[in-house]
Amino acid sequence: MVERMKVYELARELEMTSKELLVLLKELEIKVKSHMSVLIKEEIEKVIAKIEGKDKPATLSADEAGAEAAEETAKPAEEKGKPEQV
Description:
By secondary structure, this protein is mainly alpha-helical.
């Protein structure tokens, strides 16, 4: 991996605009002034990790899946498979 990279170069590599990357950098509390600012290796890795986390399909943890199943079974029988009446 590169030790240093300008914001606009990283944006191009990630197939996003510099403005989008600047917003993401602000969310990650990485301070930059413009698209010409230089990012160090650790900052680049942090951005890539965040992007990869967003790109992964949403999967439920075991706890979340169990909670959803419990909510489904808690619904009254008439709500479960019954079509809505107009």
